[in-house]
Amino acid sequence: MMNTGIVERPTAQRVRDTLERLGTERDVWVSTAHPEHGPHQVPLWFLWDGRAVWMCTGGTSVTARNVHTEPRVRLALPDTFDVVLLQGDAEGFPAHEVSADAAQAFADKFGWDPRAEEGSFLYIRVVPRMVRAWRGGRELAGRVVMRDGTWLT
After folding, report:
1. pLDDT tens string 11-52
2. Sequence spans of domains, the chain
3. What is the H or E stretch that residue 107 is in?
4. Is 110 exposed, middle or buried (0-12, 13-18, 19+ CB in 10 A)?
5. Which CATH architecture has domain 11-151?
6. In 10 A of CB 75, how many CB atoms?
7. What is the Cα–Cα distance from 116 to 95, expressed in whole angstroms?
8. Which of 11, 38, 48, 111 has a beta carbon 3.0–4.6 Å from 22's, enabling a disulfide?
């Protein structure tokens, strides 16, 4: 394995780095599955509200249909060297039922408000139960930074 010069971070630093990325990044890969049709993966814009990831997709999209059938999802930030993977249950909110605070925060971040669009949209909230974070092979051990919804220190 190639030495990249990366120094292994303690868990508390990995948590801080993960929270910073959740607060600043724009895109997340969303992995859903349907019991009959199998896995589906798509990138979506996301908002981190300090406790949950919020995304929005078309109300009839494969992602929307999958989370109704099987709410267990995995999310991945798009950097393959500075990996952050989240696992949790998705909860869908039609645009007319989403909390005003979440919808406005999403609109403020992206300059796009799905509630004002034609057609149906589904906001998806995922409160992570498990988060893994690592940079390179040296950090594979200890990569779990959240377990059962609690950040580790």
Report:
1. 999 999 999 999 999 999 999 999 898 999 999 999 999 999
2. 11-151
3. helix 100-110
4. middle
5. Roll (2.30)
6. 22
7. 9
8. 48
Distant-in-sequence, close-in-space partners of 26: CB < 8 Å, separation ≥ 6: 45, 46, 110
The residues, ordered by sequence, that sit 6+ positions from 126 with a Cβ below 8 Å of its Cβ are 52, 53, 55, 73, 75, 86, 88, 89, 90, 91
- Cβ atoms of residues 63 and 32 within 8 Å: yes
- Structural tokens at position 108: 């403020």
Distances (CA, A) of 117 to 59, 87, 114, 120: 12, 30, 5, 8
CA–CA separation, 142 vs 18, rounded Å?
Answer: 14
Q: What is the mean pLDDT of residues 75-79?
A: 96
